[in-house]
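[Solved] Which block belongs to which protein?

Original post:
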Amino acid sequence: MMIIALFMMSCGGNNSDSKTTTGQDKKTEVTDPEAAKGLELVSKSDCFTCHKLSETNIGPPYAAIAEKYKSITPQTMDSMVAQIQNGGYGRWGAVPMTPHPQISRPDAEAMVHYIMSIKKE
């Protein structure tokens, strides 16, 4: 029984009120409300399975995505929302991005705000 309790404590505890995330490679404070909502959505999805904040994993790091696109224009927003919802292939290498059609456009836009809030150190 004690093993189960320890397992639950080590895997759980994702506080949705938190505006701080600790990635394996750095800690990021989120102060913009839209970016904070995006962080919450990213944290509840499978995004951190493939993406880290500043290190390459299966997918590109969020800091590299923010650096590549620099700012959120209508075209950037449309492109990134499409990538989140429909998946993609070839922009960042040979590994395809898994589609997430269940994510609404407003939620995907909040996720984009979070990604674009990450700055490379």
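(Second protein starts here: sequence line, then its structure tokens.)
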Amino acid sequence: MSTSRRKYLLITPCRDEIEFGRRTLDSVLAQSVKPAKWIIVDDGSTDGTSEMLDDYAARHDFIEVVRKPDRGQRSVGPGVIESFYFGYEACTPRDYEYLCKLDLDLELPPTYFESLMERMEANPRIGTCSGKPYGREPDGSLHAEAAGDEMSVGMTKFYRVDCFEQIGGFVREVMWDGIDCHRCRMLGWIACSWDVPELRFLHLRPMGSSQQSIFVGRMRHGFGQYFMGTGLAYMAASSVFRMSEAPRIIGGLCMFWGYLSSLFRRLPRYDDLEFRRFLRGYQRDCLLLGKRRATEKLNQRMATQWQAPASV
């Protein structure tokens, strides 16, 4: 692909990000390949974020701030995707090769987007990808946040526009950032992320937290797994695995309780039976073969389902 076609669109939902926002803004401005367009959806900020965004937009013509009516509070999951689509509908995504849902609490390395596009150019089946998030400890050391190689992470979902349209975009519910990657594989696309220096970025807000607490965030994750269609055995294994991460033990227990309480109450699930069967088949293979081998096996099997878009 010619570098002249490396046009990418960023869409950033945000609310009250004065603490971290400038670090994200400055790291995007320092990119070796800058976005052709950056739409930032200000979802009712009251902490000075609006004024900060206006200042950057006035100095950089590719930044556009879109104001969304205030819902009254920060909202994760479906609220974030609602704000994302508010920005998505304010532009013409087909004018770009790539699309990224980008959070405003990150610090990106300078060749981040260029490196992603180079990797996607090398493999036309990669539909969505990302780097890996790292958090900083009080002593200044870094720790890797949980992020499987078979997923693109929710805070920097980088997509081919063709792939994003084929999967039907994001589901407006918790676990939107897992459902999308599995839908990619159903259609023969590859979803992935890489842990290499040029793609490691700082996540300035702890992953899995919420507007209430990190424990509520873990329970929300458990509900999200239930909603997506995850099986009980896979959820139990996943919860045990997460017990090794902070907050240790209780974090995994909160996840499992979020799942079980949703199961006991028979809450609604993602209304796509074919998807849920596909997901559980993949998860069974993960338990039997390990996630890496199961993903490789699935990607090989689904290659025949992939239809190369005209732009590839």
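Accepted answer:
You had them paired correctly. Confirming on the second one: The CA atoms of residues 5 and 95 lie 10 Å apart.
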